[in-house]
Amino acid sequence: MFNKSEVLLEICHDENINISEAVLRKQVEDTGKDRDYFIERFRESYQVMKESSTRGIENEVITMSGITGGNGKRVNDYRSSGKAVSDDFVLEAMARALSTLEVNGAMGKIVAAPTAGASGILPAALVTFQNKKGLTDDEMINGLLTASAIGGMIAMNATISGAEGGCQAETGAASAMAAAALVELNGGSVDEAINAASFAIINILGLVCDPIAGLVEFPCALRNASGVTNAIISCDLAMAGVKSIIPFDEVVEAMYSVGNSLPASLRETALGGLAITPTGSKFTVSSCSGACTGI
Amino acid sequence: MKKYDIFDIMGPIMIGPSSSHTAGAARIGKMAKTIYGKEIKKVTFYLHGSFQTTYQGHGSDRALVGGVLGYDPDDERLVGSLEDAKEKGIDYMFKTIDLGYVHPNTIKVLFEDPETGEEFYITGSSIGGGKIEIIDINSINVRFTGEYPTIVAEYKDKFGMIAAISLVLTRNNISIASLRVTRDEKIAQMVMELDQTFNDDVIESIKSFPEITRIIGIKPL
After folding, report:
1. Does A56 touch chain B (CB under 8 A)?
2. How confident is the model at residue B221 (pLDDT cuts 50, 70, 90)?
3. Chain A, window 198-237: residues with a beta carbon less than 8 angstroms from a chain B beta carbon
4. Contact at 8 Å (CB) between B138 and B146?
């Protein structure tokens, strides 16, 4: 894995390769395993992503606690209502992000990318983009590789955990990963991919992690839906030629220092934010297990 | 600086909703079953720290029971594990415990044979991203992740034992990835993580030393 985007960009420029190729070569070099080993494992992950981002848009999926559910299908149905403000691509992406989080909350199979709580963003971005452009699964694997390179740099220099850095770290990392993947799959340059990753983090710096009753459901699912839209706009901003004044590595450092400054109550402890609102505090795990419905 | 593998970032493939509370819990359960190695009749899960409050909401109860039934962290049967255990006549219980200064996500899994009254336990921590660390096997202090083939041996302390056990591995072309020996009075505990997997002959050869009081071979999950 690469440690700094500076190093990654230098290699990509020198060898005239994109991020996915650079990270694949580095993996082969670091582990001695062949390219196919990584491609096969990512192919398996992508299948799981496709399924998790589809199940909840086709059928209503209700989470185990019953706090949330059915929203993936709700948003997907809304696509054909003619009332939507967002375009169809954004709506499909949001619906898919909700789907994966609902499958996650219903004890279904997902890929932590980079965590379970942020597992909706990358599949939603990739699968929706694949549908739009008619790309093959093999092409999509490049998106996963690029995303891993971005996630790796964030994990190594800062954190990808909500408990450590707030939701800016968790869904922020996933959005940055998805943004860079979209740029590469859309034919953008490596600099544009890194800029897009920077934008995705900049756009949500400071976002707190305040899960109701400590469960990975609300507001987590919503933040996966907004996270994928953040990835989409970050991709477009970068490909339009907007540049980040602050380099990616410094954006990541800033995110880490913001995370360290957040009080513990706003870092996945369910002791702050939405979790302790009068309504939020009524939900407890014991009251919800199998008992809360339709909220 | 922290080191990350590509699959730490993209993965694991798992059953939701939480890598620490579901995937890690399933792995602790399966590791406990593997180490116990006997038919499971009665099992009690002692929950420490953060598992105490959210174990139901995060499906840790289903993950732990699924784990002791042998389900992997990505097995969709985990969701129905409580029902599966009842069908198999396995008696399971959840209790809270304070294990002191251990990782906040730690669970003690106690197996009991209701007929003989025999008890056996393992204690494991879910250390993040679905990874685990086993810290105690029936009062033997250990520390291993289960990612490598692992041999845990308990023996009467005597000069040359480490060399003798290592020689068995050398003869079987197995290299040691890590080795930890602790001593308590005259009894020593050795935990070896290995680069290559072992077959039953290796365990039998080590077991044949008269000093060995107990040996457990654990294949990676």
Report:
1. no
2. confident
3. 213-217
4. no
Residues written for chain B: 221
Find which of A35, A44, A109, A212 to mutate to test the B interface (most B CBs within 10 Å of its CB). A109
CB B138 within 8 A of CB B166: no
pLDDT band, very low/low/confident/very high, at A286 (cuts 50, 70, 90) = low
CA–CA separation, A234 and A215 (whole Å): 28
Among A106, A109, A97, A138, residue whose Cα is nearest residue A229:
A97
In tens, the pLDDT along A73-129 reads 999 999 999 999 999 999 999 999 999 999 999 999 999 999 999 999 999 999 999
Q: Give the Cα separation of A8 and A11 in Å (integer).
A: 5
* Confidence at residue B1, expressed as pLDDT on a 0 to 100 scale: 62
Q: Given A45, A48, A214, which is nearest B53 (Cβ)?
A: A214
Query: Which residues of chain B make contact with A42, given a CB cutoff of 8 A?
Result: 10
pLDDT band at A285 (very low <50, low <70, confident <90, very high): low
**What is the spatial distance between Cα A228 and Cα B131, in angstroms, rounded to a whole number?**
27
- Inter-chain CB pairs, A–B, below 8 Å: 127
Contact between chains at A23 and B6 (C-beta distance less than 8 A): yes
The two three-digit tokens of residue A207, written as one number? 């976002």
pTM tops 0.90: yes
Residues B113, B114, B119, B125: is their CA dihedral positive or negative? positive
CB contact under 8 A, A155 and B5: no
Q: What is the DSSP string of A206-274?
A: T--B--GGG-SSTTHHHHHHHHHHHHHHHHHHHHTT---SS-HHHHHHHHHHHHHHS-GGGBTSSSSGG
Residues of A in contact with B128 (CB under 8 A): 161
Contact flag A214-B54 (C-beta cutoff 8 Å): yes
Q: Give the Cβ contact number of residue A251 at 10 Å.
A: 24
Out of B9, B53, B57, closest to residue A114 by CB: B9
Portion 127-146 of A in contact with B at CB < 8 A: 144
CB spacing of B9 vs A115 below 8 angstroms:
no
What is the distance between the terminal CA atoms of chain A, rounded to a whole angstrom?
42
Residues of B in contact with A213 (CB under 8 A): 54, 57
ipTM confidence: 0.94
